[in-house]
């Protein structure tokens, strides 16, 4: 039975063309570390429209670097605004900041940020706002340009988790006023596992010392560089296809909304990352996931997804969610197969 892989938010597969070959070349022909690092840094700066003077710090994933950024930026007595839609790794990193008050901004039952409340909460005691670009549970995009304008006007640092969007969706650090952007290399960027980092604006980079314990994963960074080449060459077409697939996935599952499942996130195929989550009502989530895998070869993510607060905000605090996510290499036929399988099981 052919596998239908729909868990690209956890780790994309297949990777971008040339990733494996670039990693092998680095292992077989060492001695080009400086060139590989500099090339990958330059590609990342272009991809995210980083301000001049921005600095890239490579890490094994998105949370490792963010935690060190927070420890350099925050002091006892500071306040940070975030949301219940964040990944568990983000919230745990904040919890480990001694003496820092963390406040959760309210979100709607569809995971949308209450922008009017954010403006009221941005008082002088707020040091930073830390938000995801798109929830890994609901897929809903946050209005970062608007948030960035509010933060910029008050001198507040804006930190962003780009785990679900970097690559498939445009990111503009300079336009949005983002000071810190953490990212994995192995999801939307289509790079290898064990890669990621944080992009720091000049004012934040001046406050964050180098990570002394970080040993660059040179084969991984070379593979990430190849993936970034792919995005530079075909980015517009890849984003267009990912958007089409995401909207198709939403439309097919929307046909079953209220017929044994509940569609989560925005009630629209637009303003979303390339994922759709549902809560099954006719059968337990765990049973549905098991049957989809056993009978149809469909692989997805399910459970709390390390985000119990997000699940609770979406009304799924009991059994969590089932998440389906796409990459540019997903086919429309695979999404139709998913819809048919779900309908047959309900």
Write the layout of secondary structure elements.
Layout: E1 4-5, H1 19-28, H2 33-48, E2 55-59, H3 62-73, E3 79-82, H4 88-95, E4 101-104, H5 115-121, E5 126-132, H6 144-154, E6 157-161, H7 173-176, E7 180-184, E8 196-200, H8 202-205, H9 218-254, E9 261-263, E10 275-280, H10 285-296, E11 298-299, E12 301-303, H11 308-313, E13 321-325, H12 332-345
Parallel strand pairs: 1-11, 3-4, 3-5, 5-6, 6-7
Antiparallel strand pairs: 2-8, 7-8, 9-10, 10-13, 12-13
Helix pairs in contact: 1-9, 2-9, 3-4, 9-12, 10-12
**What is the count of DSSP helices, taking H or I runs of 4+ residues?**
12
In whole angstroms, how far apart are the ends? Answer: 21 Å
**Low-pLDDT segments:** none
CATH class of the largest domain: Alpha Beta
Instruction: Output the structural class.
Output: alpha/beta
Give the rounded overall mean pLDDT: 95
Major sheet: 7 strands, mixed
Using the alpha-carbon principal axes, give the shape.
globular
Quickly count the domains. Answer: 2
CATH topology of the largest domain: Aspartate Aminotransferase, domain 2
SSE succession = EHHEHEHEHEHEHEEHHEEHEEHEH
Strand order of the largest sheet: 2-8-7-6-5-3-4
How many β strands by DSSP? 13
Strand content: 15-25%
The H-level CATH homologous superfamily of the largest domain, spelled out, is Type I PLP-dependent aspartate aminotransferase-like (Major domain)
């Amino acid at each position: 039975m052919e596998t239908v892989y729909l868990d690209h938010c956890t780790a994309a597969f297949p990777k971008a063309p040339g990733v494996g070959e670039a990693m092998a070349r680095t292992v077989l022909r060492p001695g080009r570390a400086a060139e590989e690092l500099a090339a990958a840094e330059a590609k990342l700066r272009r991809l995210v429209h980083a301000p001049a003077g921005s600095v890239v710090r490579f890490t094994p994933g998105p949370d490792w670097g963010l935690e060190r950024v927070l420890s350099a930026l925050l002091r006892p007595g500071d306040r940070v605004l975030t949301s219940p839609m964040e990944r568990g790794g983000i919230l745990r990193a904040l919890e480990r900041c001694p003496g820092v008050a963390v406040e959760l901004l309210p979100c709607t039952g569809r995971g949308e940020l209450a922008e009017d409340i954010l403006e009221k909460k941005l008082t002088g005691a707020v040091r930073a706002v830390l938000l995801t670009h798109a929830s890994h549970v609901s897929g809903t995009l946050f209005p970062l340009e608007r948030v960035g304008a509010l933060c910029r006007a008050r001198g507040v640092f804006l930190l962003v988790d780009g785990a679900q969007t970097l690559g498939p969706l445009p990111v503009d650090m300079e336009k949005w006023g983002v000071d810190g952007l953490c990212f994995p290399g192995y999801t939307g960027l289509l790079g290898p596992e064990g890669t990621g980092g944080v992009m720091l604006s000049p004012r934040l980079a001046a406050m964050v010392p180098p990570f002394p314990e970080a040993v660059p994963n040179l084969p991984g960074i070379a593979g990430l560089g190849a993936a970034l080449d792919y995005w530079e060459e075909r980015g517009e077409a890849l984003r267009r296809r990912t958007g089409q697939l995401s909207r198709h996935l939403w439309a097919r599952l929307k046909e079953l909304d209220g017929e044994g499942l509940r569609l989560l996130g925005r009630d629209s195929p637009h303003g979303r990352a390339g994922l759709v989550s549902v809560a099954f009502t006719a059968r337990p989530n765990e049973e549905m996931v098991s049957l989809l895998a056993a009978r149809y070869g469909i692989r997805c993510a399910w459970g709390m997804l390390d985000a119990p607060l997000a699940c609770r905000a979406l009304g799924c605090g009991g059994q969590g969610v089932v998440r389906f996510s796409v990459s540019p290499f997903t086919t429309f036929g695979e999404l139709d197969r998913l819809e048919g399988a779900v309908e047959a099981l309900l």
